[in-house]
Amino acid sequence: MAEAVHGWLVLDKPPGLTSAAALGVVKRALGGAKAGHAGTLDPLATGVLPLAIGEATKLVRFAVAGRKTYAFTIRWGEQRTTDDAEGAVAATCPARPDGAAIAAALPEFVGTLLQQPPIYSAIKVEGHRAYALARRAAAPELARRAVTIERLALLLVPDPDHARFEMVCGSGVYVRALARDLAARLGTLGHVAALRRTRVGPFTIAQAIPLDKVVALRHSPALANCLLPLETVLADIPALSLSDDEARRMRLGQSIAVAHAADATVCAMAGGKPVAVAHVAGGVARPERVFNL
Q: Which of 22, 66, 76, 88 is 20 to 30 A removed from 30 (C-alpha atoms)?
């Protein structure tokens, strides 16, 4: 692909692959384009993995902060070292909750709550990843973090060992930790047996492209045509229209006077193209991230 490409590729990540490995495959397919991913998925997990290509990498924080939707299955009666099916069995329990008990417990896990991340996570502890410490039998005690779960619904109890759920949540929520804590609340053990992310902010599973299709289209213009505009993640912030001269100045990193006095983050636009993400305060717009398009 001779020309630089910019935008978002919504990948349907396959199981058994880390987010970083999936990103590497896409980067090679795009001829080594600058790229990053927004919101890590565990190797077990599948589904929506937004990939920022080119100048869209300057907007990853907006995608990471977006609301997320997950469909997942909990397997009761087994604790795993990783809190998902990839880990070794650490303990078992004969108790199995029924559908009524599960549904009755779910409201306790909706709202803003303190959640302790799994010990096998990418959180850094004194410069080391928690999962690396756990592998060396030096698992740290991770501090609880405030997270928000907006919706948690029981979809199906196919058999006594399993239950399927759907969750809508903010950033920072660990589905594995939820499975662990919900199982404990129900008087048993549990881990995530299957996990699929169906939405991240504006990106949905309907837009997602399988990795094998990305590979099949490698180095072709058709792959670039699969990208969504980089401003897709900025749909919820106000747009600020600039003149050609104002756009030129902002691209140089200069502030410009605007009619808006209220504090706001805006997407500065000119000629139908994004110029910068800017912060407006006191009638002045100051560029924070300028796009080289």
A: 66
Catalytic residues: 42
Question: 2 in a domain, yes or no?
Answer: no
Angle at 104 between CA 163 and CA 110, to 5 degrees: 85
Q: Is residue 274 part of a domain?
A: yes
Domain span at 90: 68-200
Residues 202-261 have pLDDT tens digits of 999 999 999 999 999 887 888 888 899 998 999 888 989 999 999 999 999 999 998 866
How far is Cα 203 from Cα 225, in angstroms, rounded to an integer?
Answer: 16
Q: Is the pLDDT of residue 173 over 60?
A: yes
| 134-173 per-residue burial string, b: 16 or more CB within 10 A, e: under 16 | beeeebeebeeeebbbeebebeebeeeebbbbebbbebeb
In a domain, 169, yes or no: yes
As a whole number of angstroms, the distance between CA 86 and CA 81 comes to: 8
